[in-house]
Specification:
Elements: H1 8-18, H2 27-49, E1 62-67, E2 72-77, H3 84-91, H4 96-108, H5 115-118, E3 130-138, E4 145-150, E5 156-161, E6 167-174, H6 189-200, E7 207-216, E8 228-236, H7 253-263, E9 272-278, E10 284-290, E11 307-311, E12 314-320, E13 332-337, H8 346-351, H9 353-376, H10 378-401, H11 404-407, E14 413-415, E15 421-422, H12 424-430, E16 438-442, H13 446-450, H14 456-460, E17 465-468, H15 471-480, E18 482-483, E19 486-490, H16 507-521, E20 527-530, E21 539-544, H17 549-558, E22 567-572, H18 577-588, H19 590-607, H20 615-625
Parallel strand pairs: 1-7, 11-13, 16-17, 16-19, 20-22
Antiparallel strand pairs: 1-2, 2-6, 3-4, 3-6, 4-5, 7-8, 9-10, 10-13, 11-12, 14-15, 14-17, 18-19, 21-22
Bound molecules: adenosine-5'-diphosphate.
Residues 31, 35-36, 39, 77, 79-82, 90-91, 120-124, 168 line the site of adenosine-5'-diphosphate (ADP).
């Protein structure tokens, strides 16, 4: 049988494993046991509907066997098994992106205990301790059994073989000891027992091993010199009670954290753990986590929302989407309920009444947790909001604003006066007595908004401004419309609802100037007004009607021919020297006055972050005035 070569990425990974200086070689056992448990999950699920299989939940187990003389350690399961294609695809290849990233991480932090599990390269970790691996396996629905064999980097073979029963047996030929490394320990029963307890205690199927023990020989029991004899006894090494089934008081936060990191391949500890146990109309236990930071694929299609769903300890699905609302899609966790019929199909799951009730309850739980974090642990909440605030804002906008009332009090916006994120409740509490609106301003970042002339008057009045720096911010505010009966008002609006303290310029003269500028600019602007909000800047642009500049920019970016255009109002600061000069030029040099009007308009566009129609014309214009 010709040897097949590993795909090149897999080969590199293998080299890494074989020559590994990884300090926690022992985790190979956890990885193989967890694969075995996954394989049993799959067959156990099939057993629910396939009577011919003749197996029930209690028949499933994982067996360990260690033989010091032959240096063989086996891990055997009676799970789903693999056929030739599975062996080829699962054990001959690894996702190349995964392996590359893994390699980098491993080189950076060789002591990190969880790297291996995180990259789905578990099986290969066995090469850290084994010089040869044999896999004998028979798949559900398949008559032939197969044998996969490899001694590492030089490739693998797959041959047909005989095997009783379904499942997979992994046979490891443990490496010989070296000066630096002791591999014998992986053949010691007590060491193996300890490793199972430590890493795989919550595996829901029994992990059994024949333990050799010693006892006094019956016939020498009463003698002065009792003799001892060895005997073997089969022991279940794990307690099997899943962590979410254990009473909360018996589990440490550290255990919850570890479980989270292993189960959900997370690098960090969770920000919050929510444990709940409900008995009543529906009975269930749930263990939920709020992550500390945004998963790298969170805003991509790859990210799957949902909770793992178990029914009486049997895994029904890895991602039950119905259990979490879209706006809390960052929540990870597990729900275990006895109230589901076990052979429920995916389609039925979606309409299951119990499931919907559980989902509603869990949503409330998550909301309460967030609300209490906001109230009592502001720093943590800010961490949370940094990671998932955008999600909450999307949640407000989604479904025509259906969820906005539920989410509005969890939102935060950056404040011009506090220089940090604040809630709308805090804003409204601090509003000045005469202040009519909740003001907000939109821009690339806080520094850019700080510099906007449109905000000058608001600042001079001491009004707080909320900064919208993300796409979704302005849509959120548009959806909310008001908060505690206070309407929102954009700093870019033509009417800010404020009377200026400035003495109005002579009305007649200013009307003439405004008409002159409007005629000069023509259709470029909808209106030219004497500004009430400018203090030190000569001009600014504001938007009239329903479309704001940010919406114009957004829609033109996603759909360039959308034709979406905000109505531009050019506001002039009638007290500014540049405007005054233009006014006197109207009498003495009308052409120059027109150039002034054009330049001021272009400046207003630039400040609003809108593109100039013709940049080179603008620079020529400026030069002609210099
Ligand atoms: P991961 O488990 O993260 O996918 P592994 O390298 O550990 O990565 O395993 C690769 C794949 O091989 C698994 O996803 C599974 O499909 C298959 N596999 C491994 N061990 C077993 C087993 N004991 N029984 C059935 N399939 C297995």
């Amino acid at each position: 049988m010709a040897k097949k070569q590993f795909k090149s990425e897999s080969k590199r990974l293998l080299d890494l494993m074989i020559n590994s200086i990884y300090t926690h070689k022992e985790i190979f056992l956890r990885e193989l046991i967890s694969n075995a448990s996954d394989a049993i999950d799959k067959l156990c699920f099939i057993a629910l509907t396939d009577d011919k299989l003749g197996m029930t939940r209690s028949d499933f187990k994982i067996e360990l066997h260690a033989d010091k003389d032959s240096r063989i350690l086996t891990i055997e399961d009676n799970g789903i098994g693999m056929d030739r294609d599975d062996l080829e695809n699962n054990l001959g290849t690894i996702a190349s992106s995964g392996s590359y990233k893994f390699k980098q991480e491993m080189e950076e932090k060789p002591d990190d205990i969880d790297i291996i599990g995180q990259f789905g390269v578990g099986f290969y970790s066995a090469f850290m301790v084994a010089k040869k691996i044999t896999v004998i396996t028979k798949k559900y629905g398949c008559d032939t059994a197969y044998c996969w064999e490899s001694s590492g980097a030089d490739g693998y073979t797959i041959t047909e073989t005989e095997k009783d029963g379904l499942g997979t047996k992994i046979i490891l030929e443990i490496k010989d000891n070296t000066d630096e490394e002791n591999y014998d320990e992986f053949l010691e029963q007590y060491r193996l027992q300890g490793l199972v307890k430590r890493y795989s205690d919550y595996i829901r199927y029994p992990i059994v091993m024949d333990m050799t023990k010693s006892r006094v020989k019956e016939e020498t029991k009463d003698s002065e010199h009792p003799e001892y004899e060895d005997y073997t006894e089969r022991e279940t090494l794990n307690s099997m009670v899943p962590i979410w089934q254990r009473p909360k008081k018996d589990v440490t936060q550290d255990e919850y954290d570890k479980f989270y990191q292993e189960k959900f391949f997370a690098m960090e500890k969770p920000l919050r753990t929510i444990v709940t146990s409900v008995e009543g109309v529906v009975t269930y236990k749930a263990l939920l986590y709020i992550p500390t930071s945004t998963p790298y694929d969170y805003y991509t299609k790859e990210y799957k929302k949902g909770l793992q769903l178990y029914s009486s300890g049997v895994l029904i699905t890895d991602n039950c989407e119905e259990l979490v609302p879209e706006h809390f899609r960052f929540v990870k966790g597990i729900v275990d309920t006895a109230d589901l019929s076990l052979n429920i199909s995916r389609e039925m799951l979606q309409h299951d009444r119990h499931l919907l009730t559980i989902a509603k309850n869990l949503e409330k739980k998550v909301k309460n947790e967030l609300t209490s974090m906001l109230k009592n642990k502001r720093e943590d909440y800010e961490t949370f909001f940094k990671a998932f605030g955008r999600q909450l804002k999307y949640g407000c906008v989604a479904d025509y604003g259906m969820h906005k009332d539920e989410l509005v009090d969890l939102l935060m916006f950056y404040s011009s006066t506090e220089k940090k994120p604040v809630t709308l409740a805090e804003y409204v509490d601090r509003m000045k007595e005469e202040q009519k609106f909740i003001y907000f301003a939109t821009g690339e970042n806080a520094a850019a908004i700080d510099a906007l002339p449109q905000t000058e008057l608001l600042r001079s009045k001491g009004y707080e401004i909320l900064y919208c720096t993300e796409d979704v911010d302005e849509f959120t505010i548009q959806t909310l419309m008001s908060y505690k009966e206070k309407n929102f008002c954009s700093a870019m609006n033509d009417d800010l609802g404020i009377d200026s303290d400035e003495a109005p310029a002579d009305e007649k003269e200013s009307t003439a100037l405004l008409t002159f500028v409007k005629e000069t600019l023509g259709d470029k602007v909808a209106e030219v007004t004497a500004s009430k909000k400018l203090v030190s800047h000569p001009v600014c642009l504001t938007a009239k009607g329903g479309i704001s500049f940010e919406m114009e920019k957004y829609f033109n970016a996603v759909q360039p021919d959308s034709g979406m255009k905000a109505q531009r109002v050019l506001e002039l600061n009638m007290n500014h020297s540049a405007v005054k000069t233009m006014e006197s030029l109207v009498q003495t040099d009308i052409d120059k006055a027109k150039k002034y009007a054009e330049v001021l308009y272009c400046q207003a566009l630039l400040i609003a972050g809108l593109p100039l129609e013709n940049p080179s014309e603008y620079t020529d214009l400026v030069c002609s005035l210099m």
